UniProtKB/TrEMBL annotation:
The keyword Ribonucleoprotein does not apply. InterPro entries: Isoprenoid_synthase_dom_sf, Squ/phyt_synthse, Trans_IPPS_euk-type. Keywords: Transferase. Pfam families: SQS_PSY. GO terms for molecular function: squalene synthase [NAD(P)H] activity. Gene3D superfamilies: Farnesyl Diphosphate Synthase (1.10.600.10). One of its GO terms (biological process) is farnesyl diphosphate metabolic process. This is Farnesyl-diphosphate farnesyltransferase.
């Protein structure tokens, strides 16, 4: 078992944090809640995941080229050394097309990110390498499974198994990665059964991704993507195109309730995961509590939203609710009774599937 910090000098640490501040100040602030010993590895992994996502989402470049650059990016984690020419090719092709300043900065600093990766311990490199082999499969699935860019080219997933596979690629694997990383670096986690807790961590990640799917359904439909499986829609007498009509929401509700119930079942497993974290690991507990509680607050609003299928609507917990959840759990030092009471209350408000 490895209990070492990222093998970096202070200047390297400053480099990573400088990039994170430039790319996403909100994520940088969230990152600071993580315990020492895993903070930098998680930050670097976030930058790589966001870079892969940026490559896949640059819609001003055709899909074949995006797939090429995505595979070129992923290959850097499987070869003996970094192909710096390949990195520069990605930068040259993609930077001019970025609308978001954070994504543009990230691509400009991509070489620095890989230098940080080279400075990681062998164990951390292996864990990040594993993540960057699995995570981009979800982005590749988006590019190949959904060939259109608009509602006129709408395509849906076929089955629940396909949805489950997709949620594993884009989020479930992060729970597995997280477990491996904290167990390698936090002495208090040494007694965890890594395979068992990784499996629960996978459920945690899937629950968060399903929450994103149901809250963003209107916008995804407009972009030609229906993550709601055709098999579920057929049970309600619906086709994917029916969801483009806002008046279809009442008929869609039973399907929505089923997806919300599935998300809640996954998040319940995430709560079990969180409560298994040693009491002394307050930072790690908070880092797990917050996304679950905010996902629950979001699902509560999704379940009753009258305009869910409207692509202009952005359903999320208001800032006051976010601040309340953060304050309550922080001021009580991630107390299990207080936080679980909050979660149970949310569970009842959302109701059974």
């Amino acid at each position: 078992m490895e209990f070492l910090s990222l093998n970096t000098l202070p200047a390297t640490d400053e480099l990573l944090h400088g990039i994170l501040k430039q790319v996403s100040r909100s994520f940088y602030l969230t990152l600071n809640v993580l315990p020492v010993g895993v903070r930098d590895q998680m930050g670097l992994s976030y930058l790589f995941a966001r870079a892969a996502d940026t490559i896949a989402d640059t819609d001003l470049i055709d899909r074949a080229q995006r797939l090429k650059y995505l595979n070129q990016f992923r290959a850097q984690f499987t070869t003996a050394g970094i192909d710096w020419n390949a990195i520069r090719e990605i930068q040259t092709a993609l930077i001019p097309h970025q609308k978001d300043s954070g994504e543009s900065i990230l691509l400009q600093r991509l070489e620095d990110c890989f230098k940080l990766y080279e400075a990681c311990s062998v164990g951390d490199q292996e864990r990040i390498r594993w993540l960057m082999e699995v995570l981009p499969r979800g982005m590749e699935m988006d590019l190949t499974r959904f060939p259109g860019e608009s509602s006129s080219q709408l395509t849906a997933l076929s089955t629940l198994d396909e949805l489950d596979r997709y949620t594993y690629y884009v989020a479930g694997c992060v729970g597995e990665f997280w477990t491996r990383m904290v167990c390698a670096h936090r002495q208090t986690m040494a007694n965890w059964n890594v395979p068992e807790m990784s499996a629960i961590g996978v459920r945690f990640g899937k629950g968060l991704q399903l929450t994103n799917i149901v809250k963003d359904i209107g916008r995804d439909l407009q972009n030609g993507r229906c993550y709601v499986p055709e098999s579920l829609l057929a049970e309600a007498g619906l086709k994917p195109a029916d969801l483009l009509i806002e008046a279809s929401l009442p008929r869609f509700r039973p399907v929505l309730d089923q997806l919300i119930g599935l998300a809640m079942d996954h998040l319940d497993q995430g709560w079990i995961y969180t409560m298994a974290i040693p009491v002394s690991e307050i930072r790690q507990r908070l880092a797990c509590m917050w996304p679950i509680l905010l996902a629950g607050e979001t699902l509560k609003r999704v379940a009753v939203a009258p305009d869910l299928l409207n692509p202009a609507v952005n359903i999320k917990a208001p800032r006051s609710v976010v601040y309340r959840a953060v304050a309550l759990t922080t001021l009580t030092c991630a107390n299990a009774f207080v936080a679980t009471t909050y979660w149970d209350s949310l569970r009842k408000q959302i109701g059974p599937a």
